[in-house]
């Protein structure tokens, strides 16, 4: 009987050690959209310009974040040679999150 308790205690100890060890090594990773958000928040002047454009678009009854606007900007970036690759969903998600902090009135 004593031998069985020692084995159970040993097994429980090993399980707890493995569980706690895996938690200690788990590091939260930042998502791509969060990295874009942080980059936009660091460049306040660029973000404030985007907010101004968003307010102007809102005054015309247009949304800064509608699909037609995004397609227009992407096309203009390619034509101007500024955008060499298509902006990702993470890019726009990060931009939206940054603008929500800086100019939440823009829709």
UniProtKB/TrEMBL annotation:
Residues 1-26 form the signal peptide. Keywords: Signal. It comes from the Bacteria. This is DUF732 domain-containing protein. It comes from Synechococcus lacustris str. Tous.
